[in-house]
C-alpha cells in the first residue's frame, strides 16, 4: 500500500466501500450517495437491517470480496476495519495504486468539516446516546447532521445531512483500519464529547483493561481546551479518566456529587418517569419510552450536552416523549399469540445484564426467555466465562447458542456455551445449550406460552432467528 495514496483526491466521482455492511460503513455509503457520488460496496456478511437499508437506498452490494470488484478503477476506495491486508480487494487496491482512506478519514472529509462535532464514546450505550442527542438537536430546530451505528426509528436512517452547525458522531474505540491501528475516535476533534463508561472489550485488539483505558486517555488528552466532556462516574475506570483533564470534564451519574444526576425513577404504563438534577437543583421531570436504568443514564448524558448547547428543559422534555428508539436496541420485532419477540444488540456481560433487567421491568407479568449468541471477538473468548453465569438472573429461561465463529479463536481461549449452561444450572437457573439456531427455534416454539417475552441478544444477524421464530409461533 502506497502511503502517498492514503488520501482523498480532488474531483472524486466514484467511490467503492470494502465491507460496506458494517453499521458505520453502511451509513457512510448512503450519505455519500446523498451527496451525489456514485457508490458501490462489497461484503461477505450481508443481513438485515443494514443490507435492506442499503438496498432501499439504491446502493449496489456485491456479495463476497473479489479483486474484480475494483476493475472499474474507482476514484476512491474506503476500507472498513474488518478488512485485513491479505483481503483480495486490498491486494488489488495496492496493485492498481488507487487512492484509499479509512472510514473516519472519509467522515472527516465529507461530513464534519466546518461543523462542530459532538462525539459520543464509551464501551456501552454509544448508539443509544448519540441517537438521543441527535433527536434532541433535531426536535429543537437545530437541523443537525449525524452518523451513528444504528438506524434511528424517527428518521429510518443512521445518518443525516443537516444545514445546522452541529454533527453527532458515534466515536468507536476499535481500530481504524489495517493500515491505521489507532482507535477511530482519535480522528475526530470534538466540540463536546460524552464518555458513557469504560470496561474491557475488543479482546482481539486490546491486551487488557489498562490498554483500553489508555485509548480513552489519549482521546481526552487530544481534546481541545474548549471541548466540554461529560463522563459517567458510576465506575472506577471512568473516574480514573476524569482525573486526566479535570478542567474540561463534568461527571454524570447517580452519585450525590455528580454534576448531572438522575433522581427518582418509576415505570408507569410503559413509560419511564424520572427526575434530572443539575448540581443541587432540579433540572426537570421527564418521560421516556426507553426501558432500563442504563438507558436513563444514556438519556442523562444526552440531556447534559443538549443543555450545554442551549436547549431548554421544555424542548428536551418534548423531544424525549417523541423519541421512538433505535433498531436492534430493545426493538420489538413482532408479537404472535401474545408472545413478544424482542431484538437487542447486547453482547458484553454488563450490557446483557442491564438489558435483561430493563425488559423484565417493562414486562413484569409473563416469563422472560433470554436467547444469547456469543459472537464478538471478546464474547467468544473465555475472558468473561465466569462473569456471564451471573448476568442472566432476571430471566426465567435461558438459551445459549454455540458461537458460530468459534473456529476463529485459539482452542485454549475459547468460550464454552456448555460450561456456561452448567454453571447457570448449578445456580438453579433454567438454562439450555444449543448447537444450532434451528434447535433454539424448535425449543422455544414448544415451550413458549401466552404472555411470554423472547429477548434475543446478538451483535449479528443470528441466522434471522427473529423472523423465523415469529413465523413458527
Cα Rg: 22 Å
CATH topology of the largest domain: UDP-N-acetylmuramoyl-L-alanine:D-glutamate ligase
What is the subunit arrangement here?
single chain
Instruction: Report the sheet with the most strands, covering strand number, pairing sense and barrel closure.
Output: 10 strands, mixed
* CATH-level-2 architecture of the largest domain: 3-Layer(aba) Sandwich
| Form type | globular
Question: Any low-confidence stretches, pLDDT <50, length ≥5?
Answer: none
Superfamily at the CATH H level of the largest domain? Mur-like, catalytic domain
Distance between the ends:
52 Å
Query: Helix content range of the residues, please?
Result: 25-40%
| Strand count | 23
Strand order of the largest sheet: 8-7-9-6-12-13-14-15-16-17
The pLDDT mean sits at 92
Structure annotation, total helices: 14
Work out the strand percent. Answer: 25-35%
Number of structural units classed as domains: 3
> Which CATH C-level class of the largest domain is it?
Alpha Beta
Question: Can you give a write-up of this model?
Answer:
With 473 residues, the protein is of the alpha/beta class. The protein folds into 3 domains: 3-102, NAD(P)-binding Rossmann-like Domain (Rossmann fold); 114-322, UDP-N-acetylmuramoyl-L-alanine:D-glutamate ligase (3-Layer(aba) Sandwich); 331-472, Protein-Tyrosine Phosphatase, Chain A (Alpha-Beta Complex), CATH 3.90.190.20. The protein contains 14 helices and 23 strands. The protein has helices spanning 23-34, 50-56, 88-96, 103-112, 126-139, 209-222, 236-242, 293-308, 313-322, 349-362, 385-388, 417-426, 437-447, 465-472, and strands spanning 14-18, 38-43, 61-63, 76-79, 100-102, 116-121, 145-152, 157-160, 166-170, 175-177, 180-183, 190-195, 228-232, 249-253, 260-268, 271-278, 281-288, 331-336, 339-344, 368-372, 397-401, 430-434, 453-457. The protein has a 10-stranded mixed β-sheet with strand order 8-7-9-6-12-13-14-15-16-17, with helices on both faces. A hairpin with a 2-residue loop joins strand 10 (175-177) and strand 11 (180-183). The longest helix has 16 residues, at 293-308. The chain is globular and about 60 Å long. It starts with 13 loop residues before the first strand and ends with a helix. The model has no long low-confidence stretch (mean pLDDT 92).
Amino acid at each position: 500500500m502506497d502511503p502517498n495514496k492514503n488520501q482523498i483526491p480532488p474531483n472524486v466521482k466514484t467511490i467503492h466501500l470494502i465491507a460496506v455492511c458494517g453499521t458505520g460503513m453502511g451509513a457512510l455509503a448512503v450519505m455519500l450517495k446523498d451527496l451525489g457520488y456514485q457508490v458501490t460496496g462489497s461484503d461477505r456478511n450481508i443481513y438485515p437491517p443494514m443490507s435492506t437499508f442499503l438496498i432501499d437506498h439504491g446502493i449496489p452490494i456485491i456479495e463476497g470480496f473479489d479483486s474484480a470488484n475494483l476493475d472499474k478503477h474507482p476514484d476512491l476506495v474506503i476500507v472498513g476495519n474488518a478488512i485485513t491486508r491479505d483481503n483480495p480487494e486490498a491486494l488489488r487496491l495496492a496493485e492498481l495504486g488507487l487512492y484509499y482512506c479509512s472510514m473516519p478519514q472519509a467522515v472527516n472529509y465529507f461530513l464534519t468539516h466546518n461543523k462542530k462535532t459532538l462525539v459520543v464514546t464509551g464501551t456501552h450505550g454509544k448508539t443509544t446516546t448519540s441517537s438521543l442527542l441527535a433527536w434532541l438537536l433535531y426536535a429543537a430546530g437545530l437541523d443537525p447532521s449525524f452518523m451513528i451505528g444504528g438506524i434511528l426509528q424517527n428518521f429510518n436512517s443512521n445518518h443525516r445531512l443537516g444545514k445546522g452547525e452541529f454533527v453527532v458522531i458515534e466515536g468507536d474505540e476499535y481500530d481504524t483500519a489495517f493500515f491505521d491501528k489507532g482507535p477511530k475516535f482519535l480522528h475526530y476533534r470534538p466540540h463536546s464529547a460524552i464518555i458513557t463508561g469504560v470496561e474491557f472489550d475488543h479482546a482481539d485488539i486490546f491486551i487488557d483493561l489498562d490498554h483500553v483505558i489508555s485509548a480513552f486517555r489519549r482521546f481526552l488528552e487530544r481534546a481541545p481546551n474548549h471541548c466540554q466532556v461529560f463522563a459517567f462516574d458510576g465506575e472506577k475506570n471512568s473516574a480514573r479518566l476524569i482525573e486526566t483533564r479535570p478542567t474540561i470534564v463534568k461527571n454524570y451519574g447517580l452519585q450525590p456529587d455528580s454534576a448531572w444526576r438522575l433522581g427518582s425513577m418509576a415505570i408507569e404504563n410503559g413509560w419511564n418517569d424520572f427526575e434530572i438534577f443539575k448540581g443541587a437543583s432540579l433540572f426537570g421531570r421527564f418521560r421516556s419510552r426507553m426501558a432500563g436504568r442504563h438507558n436513563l443514564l444514556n438519556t442523562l448524558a444526552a440531556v447534559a450536552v443538549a443543555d450545554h448547547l442551549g436547549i431548554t428543559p421544555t424542548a428536551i422534555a418534548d423531544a424525549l416523549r417523541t423519541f421512538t428508539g433505535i433498531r436492534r436496541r430493545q426493538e420489538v420485532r413482532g408479537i404472535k399469540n401474545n408472545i413478544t419477540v424482542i431484538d437487542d444488540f447486547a453482547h458484553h456481560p454488563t450490557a446483557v445484564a442491564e438489558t435483561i433487567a430493563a425488559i423484565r421491568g417493562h414486562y413484569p407479568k409473563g416469563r422472560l426467555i433470554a436467547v444469547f449468541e456469543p459472537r464478538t471477538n471478546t464474547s467468544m473468548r473465555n475472558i468473561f466465562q465466569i462473569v456471564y453465569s451471573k448476568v442472566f438472573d432476571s430471566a426465567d429461561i435461558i438459551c445459549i447458542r454455540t458461537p458460530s465463529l468459534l473456529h476463529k479463536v485459539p482452542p485454549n481461549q475459547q468460550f464454552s456455551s456448555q460450561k456456561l449452561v452448567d454453571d447457570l444450572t448449578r445456580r438453579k437457573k433454567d438454562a439450555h445449550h444449543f448447537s444450532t439456531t434451528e434447535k433454539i427455534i424448535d425449543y422455544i416454539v414448544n415451550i413458549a406460552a401466552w404472555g411470554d417475552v423472547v429477548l434475543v441478544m446478538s451483535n449479528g444477524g443470528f441466522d434471522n432467528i427473529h423472523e423465523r421464530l415469529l413465523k413458527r409461533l
